[in-house]
Write a structure and sequence with these properties.
- With 264 residues, the protein is an alpha/beta fold.
- The chain has two domains: 184 residues, Spore Coat Polysaccharide Biosynthesis Protein SpsA, Chain A, CATH 3.90.550.10; 73 residues, no CATH class.
- The structure holds uridine-5'-diphosphate-glucose.
Length: 264
């Protein structure tokens, strides 16, 4: 095992913890050799914390927003960016030399430890605007210097989309042009909804998908699942492609087999 590198995720409440747990379990199922860390905020219940500790090596509480110095005070003027800065806390994990951040609504389909061969800042294109990266999966090096620069940048410029993705794209603004080695292949952050927009490409490359990202408003835990038939039920209003539904079924398989028993 490599003890100075970790996969890191974030869950600010018990609902997102369900996603973090499935992600963590999927990394374990594929025998990662790296540590698993989850950032949480005070809103996560104590019951959920002990479940998190059974899947993750480290459960780290961070403040949703800290007001310790002038930069942070400036940030207080922009409360809507609070959740964003919670993700930025990953740069404070300086007991690791390199990390891979993954949103709580991602799921690994195989071992992806080779991501640690990449350098900061590596990420995959966003399916909505491919000259931007998606901030759901990225390789970074924890550093208090970078963390403070990010906070300062946020206070001065805000975020063009109100979230961490806009902020990080402005901060790492040469990502699109500087170094192709820092472009992760799309199969490391396959948006389950984008599958639908370019079906022939998905049919050709999709079998190699390594990480699925359930980005958008409806998360896997918002669906209903029949534990007997092992099928995800959609209510008619959710148009799901076959592939979307099979990724959802995979998420629910892990959730029902490995996570639900821990929550009971
Ligand atoms: N998160 C929480 N609590 C919240 C909201 C978000 O813990 O109340 C965490 C969690 O890890 C989640 C991530 O932040 O997966 C991103 O939020 P999400 O709701 O999944 O946002 P999406 O709209 O699916 O994602 C897009 C990008 C994502 C970026 C986000 C905001 O894919 O990487 O963080 O927009 O810019």
């Amino acid at each position: 095992p490599v003890t100075d590198q970790a996969f890191v995720t974030l869950a600010t409440d018990d609902v997102y913890c369900q996603g973090a747990l499935v992600l963590g379990q999927s990394l374990r199922n594929h025998s990662t050799s790296r540590k698993l860390a989850v950032l949480i905020t005070p809103g996560v219940s104590s019951g959920m914390r002990s479940v998190l500790r059974s899947v993750f090596d480290e459960v780290i509480e961070v403040d949703a927003l800290d007001s310790a110095d002038s930069v942070r005070l400036a940030l207080l003027q922009r409360p809507e960016l609070g959740i964003t800065f919670t993700k930025l806390h990953c740069w404070t994990l300086t007991h690791y030399s390199k990390c891979v951040f993954m949103d709580a609504d991602t799921l690994v389909l195989c071992n992806v430890d080779e991501l640690f061969d990449r350098e900061e800042f590596s990420a995959a294109p966003d399916s909505g605007w491919p000259d931007c990266f998606n901030s759901g999966v990225f390789v970074f090096r924890p550093s208090l210097k970078t963390y403070n620069l990010l906070l300062q940048f946020a206070a001065e410029h805000g975020s063009f989309d109100g979230g961490d993705q806009g902020l990080l794209n402005s901060f790492f603004s040469n990502w699109a042009t500087a170094d192709i080695g820092k472009h992760l292949p799309f199969i490391y952050n396959l948006s389950s909804s984008a599958v639908y927009t370019y079906v022939p490409a998905f049919n050709h490359f999709g079998r190699d998908a390594k990480v699925v990202h359930f980005l958008g408003a409806t998360k896997p835990w918002n669906y209903k699942y029949n534990l007997q038939t092992k099928r995800v039920m959609h209510d008619g209003t959710t148009s799901g492609s076959f592939h979307q539904l099979s990724f959802l079924a995979l998420w629910w398989n892990i959730y029902s087999a490995s996570i639900l028993p821990l929550l009971e």
